[in-house]
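Hey team,

Filing this mostly as a record. A colleague (T.K.) asked me to run one chain through the structure pipeline before their review meeting, and I want the input and output archived in the tracker in case anyone asks later how it was produced. No errors, nothing strange. Just documentation.

Input sequence:
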Amino acid sequence: MRVGSPFRQAVSWKAMSASVYIETTIPSFYHETRRSPLVVAWRDITRAWWDRHRSKFRLFTSDAVRAELANAPTRKASLALELIAEVSRLGEPEGLVEAAEYYIEHRLMPKEAGGDAVHLALASLHRMDYLLTWNCRHLANANKIQHLAVLNGRLGLHVPVITTPLTLMPPDTELD
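Output structure:
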């Protein structure tokens, strides 16, 4: 199956060196075993991006991602952690907790999604070009982009592009 979308971002596929923050759902979906059509599609897209396109980017993750993955069922947790073992880990910069709390206080992220606020704060504070996720409810959500831009503007923070693996692949990518 060929992946193609007229809504793809314009991304140069030559000598890509953009930074990508790998959020928890990426290694999780790489090893997903559920069989619903949407989940299978996301898993296949994740695998295609990871196996064939990740080398075009500088990848980063965090201890927060590793901690969330460690809470998965044992087999899935070990596979997901192994997948990101060689990915550079971002440190916890000054202002991380305050930025995450600011997102929650200003209703960008719900309190129960505190981990998502931390991922967003890490990507923003470290000036990541992209935050890669399948969390379309709290992170890769077009309804939140303007709100994020306003809040990060007030905080003087960079606004990463929050997206899924689908938009970081060339339009002619074939899925297995």
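Quick notes for T.K.: The two ends are 7 Å apart (CA to CA). Residues 37-52 form the longest helix (16 residues).
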